[in-house]
Specification:
- The structure is a single chain.
- It contains 1 helix and no strands.
- By secondary structure, it is an all-alpha fold.
- It has a domain of about 40 residues.
- The termini are far apart.
């Protein structure tokens, strides 16, 4: 028996399952803007890595 004096067996549901609400347009715009920003950072990082690779390659060929 529980604190309320009942055995825990009942016919009613313990929770209600509802369908999630559709995301608002403002939220979707914010997500797209964040993805665009992150994509830009990724491209900049790739460019920086490519520049470093070129510099290392040129220095290796120059001093070899």
């Amino acid at each position: 028996m529980g604190k309320d004096g009942e055995d825990g067996e009942g016919s009613d549901a313990d929770l209600t399952v509802t369908r999630p609400a559709e995301p608002s347009r403002a939220f979707q715009r914010e997500i797209r803007a964040a993805l665009r920003y992150e994509r830009g950072l990724f491209v900049k990082a790739l460019i920086a890595l490519a520049v470093v690779a070129v510099i290392v390659t040129i220095r290796t060929l120059y001093f070899a």
